[in-house]
């Protein structure tokens, strides 16, 4: 497949009022998915899952890829080192390779509003997840599950689904914390453990919204049945 050059607002290195544009070299995701899976990846409800070397896992609804604004980058257009800083996780010069999922956020307003969500780096594997794969993790509370999937399952697991950055089922991990502690931990983890590498819930959102999301996450984690929790 031919590689292309795509210029993006690099969300890890940009903050409100301070935009950093970077050109990357990469392959169009639509072409890649067609080659890997034919038409299968377009089935409604399918998620494209990106596995990172360190256990981080990012999952995006396959419908988001139909517009053709996503690329799998493997280098920078200016041949500078393929690295980025991630201040929210106190990390500098993080290697992005072998592959880094990027979005043309100069032309895709949805991607622009998402910031760095859905931009996994150090991607070593791609897979499809079908709705049935999520069935065990998705009890009654669909809203809470959606938020957990977006904000927590990149690093943590529920019922075997999700990332492996921190071991253990999230429902189990949350149990020793009171609702108040869990909320503080989600919104301002560094307040409870200053050196933690767990990032605070999306700091670009207004506090009212962050509170609402945290409440939904806590409701979901508390409501999920304890019986199917696999111990770490
Ligand atoms: C970028 C990765 C990442 C994301 C995203 C993330 N966590 Fe964590 N989480 C961690 C790490 C790393 C630890 C270990 C924390 C430490 O000791 O510094 C942790 C620990 C925890 C713990 C155990 C706390 C304790 O007292 O030991 C809970 C509960 C938790 N996370 C809940 C959540 C919830 C809920 C979300 C979603 C809102 C979330 N995490 C999102 C990385 C992450």
Automatic annotation (TrEMBL):
Which InterPro entries does the annotation name? Cyt_c-like_dom_sf
Q: Which GO terms describe its molecular function?
A: electron transfer activity; heme binding
**Designated name of the protein:** Cytochrome c family protein
């Amino acid at each position: 497949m031919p590689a292309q050059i795509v210029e993006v607002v690099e969300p890890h290195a940009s903050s409100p009022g301070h935009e950093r544009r970077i050109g990357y070299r990469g392959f169009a995701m639509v072409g890649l998915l067609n080659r890997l899976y034919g038409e299968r990846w377009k089935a409604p409800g399918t998620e494209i899952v990106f596995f990172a070397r360190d256990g981080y896992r990012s999952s995006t609804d396959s419908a988001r890829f139909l517009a053709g604004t996503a690329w799998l980058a493997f280098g920078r257009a200016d041949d500078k080192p393929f690295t980025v800083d991630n201040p929210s996780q106190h990390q500098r010069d993080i290697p992005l390779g072998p592959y880094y999922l990027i979005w043309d956020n100069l032309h895709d307003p949805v991607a622009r509003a998402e910031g760095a969500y859905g931009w996994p780096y150090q991607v070593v594997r791609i897979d499809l997840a079908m709705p049935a794969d999520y069935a065990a993790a998705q009890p009654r509370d669909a809203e809470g599950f959606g938020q957990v999937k977006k904000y927590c399952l990149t690093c943590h697991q529920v019922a075997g689904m999700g990332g492996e950055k921190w071991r253990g089922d999230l429902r189990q991990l949350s149990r020793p914390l009171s609702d108040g502690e869990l909320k503080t931990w989600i919104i301002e983890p560094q307040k409870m453990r200053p050196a933690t590498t767990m990032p605070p819930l999306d700091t670009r959102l207004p506090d009212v919204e962050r509170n609402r999301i945290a409440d939904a996450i806590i409701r979901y984690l508390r409501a999920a049945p304890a019986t199917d929790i696999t111990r770490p």
